[in-house]
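Lab notebook, design round three. We kept the backbone fixed and only want residue identities now. Task for the bench partner: fill in a sequence for the structure below.
Input structure tokens:
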């Protein structure tokens, strides 16, 4: 399956069952999940389902929310990539807190968007972000994504964004 090429600081790769422990350490941290779904830390089974879904998506669709590895320390630090949705490919990212505020999420997301338009042939990419998630909203702004609408999910306001091929921000 195609994966985005490395950036200066990051590598993208397909998921493996051996990633479960490292990724669950990220997903069970309440700081990481406060703006995900209902805001609760994930149980191990939820993390296992996420990994399994992404292994299947890579096989079935040729893309997924790829495992994200920090090149300097070779550690799995989260993910960045596309979820398969009825509204088209949805970009998402999640990083371990020790990598926050370093520009890595923006670096990964810009790279993945460029890969989606260039290599995967997407015409439009969407994103959904809880309105209280100010860090992700700053990334969305840097990506040049435009607000489409707001709606409610799990009792929280969600903002839907999109960017199309002609309006993508270059790296």
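Proposed sequence:
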């Amino acid at each position: 399956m195609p994966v985005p090429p490395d950036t200066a600081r990051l590598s993208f790769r397909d998921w493996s069952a051996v990633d479960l422990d490292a990724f669950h350490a990220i997903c069970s941290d309440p700081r990481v999940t406060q703006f995900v779904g209902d805001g609760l830390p994930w149980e191990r089974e939820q993390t296992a389902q996420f990994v399994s879904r992404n292994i299947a998506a890579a096989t079935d669709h040729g893309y997924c929310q790829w495992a994200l590895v920090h090149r300097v320390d070779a550690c799995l630090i989260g993910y960045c990539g596309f979820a398969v949705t009825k509204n088209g490919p949805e970009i998402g990212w999640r990083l371990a807190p020790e990598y926050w505020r370093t520009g890595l999420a923006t670096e990964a997301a810009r790279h993945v968007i460029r890969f989606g338009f260039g290599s995967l042939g997407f015409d439009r990419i969407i994103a959904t972000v809880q309105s209280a998630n100010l860090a992700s909203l700053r990334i969305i702004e840097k990506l040049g994504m435009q607000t489409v609408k707001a709606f409610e999910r799990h009792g929280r306001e969600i903002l839907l964004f999109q960017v199309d091929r002609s309006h993508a921000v270059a790296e």
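Keep this in mind before ordering anything: The mean pLDDT is 95.
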